[in-house]
Design goal:
This protein is α+β, with helices and mostly antiparallel strands. The chain contains 5 helices and 7 strands, in the order βααββαβαβαββ.
């Protein structure tokens, strides 16, 4: 299946809700966090997502969110590319966060999505991207490794172990 990264748009609202429902049915929170509506409707979320590309509160960093789409515009996943790292992102969030909708996992989409995101990160001026994952998420670790990730270390935080990988762009 041919896939591509696209910026969220108003006409994607209906497909977004299909994407969100898939996560809800699996009893998981949407990943990355930037793809969650939270207490907003889709139009509000979209406006905020576009604004966050250039303007953010002091505790956040500018970021771009994209959807990985397949045939007929089906949203397969989402990726968030952060322009720089703050202390929290350096520790456990990284430059790039991503997630594939639960019904579409184990089909190679995460690997492809990260591969498509890396050149976009480079265009934002990132020369070395930090990508992290939970140690128990072996699928994500394989995705990062297949995209050139080199593990720097593991950080323990409240019983959770985060693996930190760097990818040279």
């Amino acid at each position: 299946m041919k896939v591509k990264l696209v910026k969220p748009a108003p006409e994607m609202e209906r497909e977004y809700f299909s994407f969100a429902q898939d996560w809800e049915q699996s009893h998981e929170e949407i990943t990355p966090y930037s793809a969650r509506l939270l207490d907003r409707n889709y139009a509000q979320w979209l406006e905020e997502t576009i604004r966050q590309e250039t303007t953010v509160p002091d505790n956040l960093v500018p970021a771009h969110t994209y959807f990985l789409t397949g045939e007929n515009g089906v949203i397969l996943g989402a990726v968030n590319i952060r322009h720089r790292l703050n202390e929290s992102l350096l520790r456990s969030g990284g430059h790039i966060g991503y997630g594939i909708r639960p019904s579409e996992r184990r089909k190679g989409y995460a690997e492809k999505m990260l591969a498509l995101a890396l050149p976009l990160a480079k265009k934002l001026g990132i020369s070395k991207a930090l990508v992290t994952c939970d140690k128990q998420n072996t699928g994500s670790a394989k995705t990062i490794l297949h995209n050139g990730g080199i593990m720097e270390n593991e950080i323990s935080d409240g019983g959770r172990i985060t693996q930190r990988y760097w990818i040279q762009l």
